[in-house]
Design a protein that fits this description.
Elements: H1 5-20, H2 26-33, H3 37-49, H4 65-88, H5 93-106, H6 109-125
Length: about 130
C-alpha cells in the first residue's frame, strides 16, 4: 500500500518515540510532531484501519507486525538519506533529520530508493 506523507511522518515519529520510551502515547506524538491531539487520533485511526497500529491506541500506540515491517522499510531509506544530508551536505543533525523526513515524504519513493542505493554504494566503496 502506498502511504501518504502524513502516514510516513507519523510512523517515523512512533518509531523514534518507541526508542526513547516503552510507551508511546498520543500526547507524545502530538508534541513530537507539533500537531493537535485530535489530529493524532484521526491519523492513528487511519493507521489502525490500514493495519499498521493496533486498534487500542488510547493508552499506548503499538505497531502491528505489518506496521513494524513498513517502519523498517521507511527507516532504512530514512537512515541513508539522513546520512547524505548530514555527512555529505554537512547539515547539523536536527536540520538533516528534518530535511530527510521531508525528502522521503515529498519525493517519489523511487527517487528515495535511488538515493539510498547511491549512498549505500558510495559508503561501501570507502
Amino acid at each position: 500500500m502506498k502511504l501518504c506523507s502524513g502516514q510516513i511522518r507519523y510512523l517515523i515519529a512512533i518509531k523514534e518515540l518507541s526508542e526513547i520510551d516503552e510507551y508511546v502515547r498520543c500526547v507524545n506524538i502530538s508534541r513530537h510532531l507539533g500537531v493537535s491531539r485530535p489530529s493524532v487520533s484521526k491519523m492513528l485511526r487511519c493507521l489502525a484501519n490500514c493495519g499498521y497500529v493496533y486498534e487500542d491506541f488510547c493508552n499506548s500506540v503499538v505497531l502491528t507486525p505489518e506496521g513494524e515491517k513498513e517502519v523498517s522499510d521507511i527507516m532504512s531509506c530514512f537512515s541513508e538519506v539522513y546520512t547524505f544530508f548530514h555527512k555529505y551536505l554537512k547539515l547539523p543533525p536536527d536540520d538533516a533529520h528534518e530535511q530527510a523526513v521531508t525528502f522521503i515524504t515529498e519525493f517519489p519513493q523511487e527517487t528515495s530508493k535511488r538515493l539510498k542505493h547511491l549512498i549505500s554504494r558510495r559508503t561501501a566503496n570507502k
